[in-house]
Amino acid sequence: MENSDQLKQTYQATTYKLSNNGPRNIAVLQEAISGICGDELSDIYGTGEIITHFEEKIAHVLGLEGAVFFPSGTMAQQIALRIWADRKQIPKVAYHPLAHLEIHEADGLKQIHHIETLLLGESDRVVTLADIKALSQKVSCVLLELPQREIGGQLPSFQELVEISMYCREHQIALHLDGARLFEILPFYQKEAKEVCALFDSVYVSFYKGLGGIAGAILAGPNDFLEEAKIWKRRYGGDLISLYPYILSADYYYEKRKDSMALYYEKAVELAKQFNQLPGVRTIPEIPVSNMFHVEFLKPVLEVKARLAQVHQETDIGVTGYLVEKDTNTSSFELTVGDAIFKIQAKELLHLFQVLS
Amino acid sequence: MENSDQLKQTYQATTYKLSNNGPRNIAVLQEAISGICGDELSDIYGTGEIITHFEEKIAHVLGLEGAVFFPSGTMAQQIALRIWADRKQIPKVAYHPLAHLEIHEADGLKQIHHIETLLLGESDRVVTLADIKALSQKVSCVLLELPQREIGGQLPSFQELVEISMYCREHQIALHLDGARLFEILPFYQKEAKEVCALFDSVYVSFYKGLGGIAGAILAGPNDFLEEAKIWKRRYGGDLISLYPYILSADYYYEKRKDSMALYYEKAVELAKQFNQLPGVRTIPEIPVSNMFHVEFLKPVLEVKARLAQVHQETDIGVTGYLVEKDTNTSSFELTVGDAIFKIQAKELLHLFQVLS
User: Where exactly are the transmembrane stretches of this chain (chains A, B) (predicted)?
Assistant: First the structure.
């Protein structure tokens, strides 16, 4: 058995996990819909109470004029950028080098919309106002991802966000928020969602990250923007006859977990501190600003994998099922605090860190 | 209250319906997943047993090398045509003037892929081999929709299909099947799905038409074609982390209704006969070749609407909730036989036609 398989298999075999909200299994859907009256009618191609009520509710939460439910954020964000590019007649947008659009979408933005992407700043830090000012070409839209997932969920200061927003408005650059994890950053900023969203022209939020739904996204913004977005949703084949399995679960888990984000954040800070006390281990960021961070091991990856597999078997707590090798002496994984960690007793968690040290 | 609203409202208020498989409500999903073990794991971005087992099962049913599950047929078919256009280096495809791609997708094929569409034959009849031979320009792909939904679900003869297939192969034209209602036509052709699919290079089937699932589609064909399709599925934002709500219901309702298609077809033939005996009424086609047909009224539309609303209230059987006005003296609706009609007692159905006459 390879070490990578062993790590994954021992992880899957553990009863408890450090990350996430529990297994992604069918029970997640069963729980979400069991309390709903079977007579309630499906949404039909974007119409009907199930979809419009949820869209109105989230638009209100985000403080934006309207909202449209999409099957995925990939679809929603490409469409948002296309609309801004069309409106400003500039087929160029700018975002972080590790933006979801750049590394996880098989170049959909370029292949479907022929939009050129300018990368802002450096891949190992968040985008700054200086990066935007330094753009060599005019762009229609800047996309900011809060938190910046691929670097452990880092954030700019709220003041920097305000300044970026002012600069973009002055320069007629649309500012779009990749808020896949928007609810997860509110405790750090000590803001409501609408205070963050007020800085942006359009906003995407996801319902299966910290909230733990099944899939699905909301794109929010001005109504005329959303009317265009609905046409593109139809073109993409995202205007399904029924999106209710995702909508109902998004609503259910939003209600279930929206008030737990501060708890997740505090636990992430506490957990990162414990990891940083281990020899040859550090977290990125050192002090988390959301419910997530990266754990980095400064040892050969095979050694770490073998050790973690032992730890899984010894503690019955899953630390991670994979490791990304950064160089011969550095590997890391992403840790995201959700409901799962709260099922582990304090002394068991303490024991885990004793075993890890 | 307007007549159109009155028709819709009286239709919705009826206990029984002539069309479909029952209300599109949450109970459809609840029924599909209630028997499944909650521990069963979600598919993850196109991987996992739930999705691969279903894809393999349907590929086997269709007799094709492989299959990929998509959230929608719109997405699946645009992608299929794009791949054929790329392979043959001809950004032109041909299909019926009332193809789904032409009239229901907000020009997605043209807007996303810049593919030119050549319309085959006439809008009020099915595509013939002669239409394909008469094409003035070379195309990469011909798409055939079986049955042709917008003209009441008409079909060419199986012999004509065989000849079209041979011609396309001879001329290096890919032949794609819009088989949204493929299972519904097998009783008329007296063929298995794989015998029809063997004539095509790629096939799309839907799981929420006659089968009555929630949403979702399969694109089937050669494995190298499907590998490209998966990349496009990712680009479109159709590669959701979890598609299982649609997959599980597709599988459940496929098993539940696949063997009822002959029953639906026979009932459609019987029902069309009864409509054709009414004064000023005819069906298209006169004798159905699937579970669907159009009912045409040769009277002013407002008169028909008012009459049908009365009929709804008098019989408690829903005939239709809408009428499409074709000209001042002609209107029609689509009738699709599913499980719903079998809940109506024979004498009640007889009574309906007495009231209608």
Answer: none
